[in-house]
Amino acid sequence: MTVKRLRGLLLLPLVLLSGCHFALLDPSGDVARQQSDIMIVTTLITLLIVVPVLVAIGIIAWRYRASNKQAHYDAHWDHSPSLELLVWAAPLVIIIAVGAISWIGTHQVDPYRPLTRVAPNQPVAVDVKPLEVDVVSLRWKWLFFYPQYGIATVNQLAAPVDRPIQFKLTSDEMMDAFSVPELAGMIYTMPGMQTMLHAVINKPGQYQGFSANYSGEGFTDMRFTFEGMSQQDFDSWIAKARAGGGSLDLPAYEQLRQPERNAAARSFASFEPDLFTRILDRCIDASQTCMSPAMSADAHAGGAMQDMPGMHDDNTTPADAAKPAETQAAETH
């Protein structure tokens, strides 16, 4: 094989990838970009120790190969303070640097933390309210509520450019993972629990969203389109959803929640006002007891038990409380 053919084979993967867009390395949302910067910086810092070690392995293997009779070998060498300092100090400094960047960065892009900026050197305006989107993962499709506009959509999501988005997420039955790589990091959805995600999109366009957690045979089809658009286009999109969809009431939701693969994108002009809360509390059926009142009752019952005579943090019972202190101390020890 000639050198020219070998070079062509080595460059072939780069040619095949030349048309790809690496969303994780060049995202269109500020939160995702901050996460990408953290990943790139920590990787480069790690390479400061990885690359020299790999180079040193090659140099040592070549210099002290069996055929090199000129290499000096000291059979009595066992320690070098300068080498020991280098071996331990360099990784320690790198670990401290990576740890500091990771700690600061992950707190800055905490999904539960409201955004303070929509882009570098562009703080969130005081009069701008975040776009609220309630997300429900179904089998195997995504349901999005827009409580500020009174509409709901299936497998289609849209938001104005440079406007903060506040997601509240839950799941109908199975655990999933909401992921739009161009927008922000992945966040899980779980039945009976609510997670949150704050994000913003900075460039108009269509982006792919999907579930990043296996949830059954239809998992591969659990995809949706996320569109970043101007405020004017977003208003038109809302108006179109209001004009072309029906109502997402309880019977319609019962039908929607049935397992479905390759679900078509559609919209609802209105929905039950408390539907997301009922999904979260797992009481779609009127005969079911909602989780929030039940948990609240349990919490109050627990507090009442703590207030009963003899019910203390040290687990003493009323019978123990009636004993003399000396007897309790003796029994404890």
Automatic annotation (TrEMBL):
Top-rank taxon: Bacteria
Segments forming domain Cytochrome oxidase subunit II transmembrane region profile: 16-113
Oxidoreductase among keywords: yes
Name of protein: Ubiquinol oxidase subunit 2
The family this protein is said to belong to: Belongs to the cytochrome c oxidase subunit 2 family.
Topology of the protein relative to the lipid bilayer: Multi-pass membrane protein
Keyword list, A-Z: Cell membrane, Electron transport, Lipoprotein, Membrane, Oxidoreductase, Palmitate, Respiratory chain, Signal, Transmembrane, Transmembrane helix, Transport
Pfam families: COX2, COX_ARM
Organism of provenance: Rhodanobacter hydrolyticus
UniProt-annotated location(s): Cell membrane
Annotated spans, Disordered: 300-333
Listed transmembrane segments: 38-64, 85-105
Domain Cytochrome oxidase subunit II copper A binding: from-to ranges: 128-240
Signal peptide: none
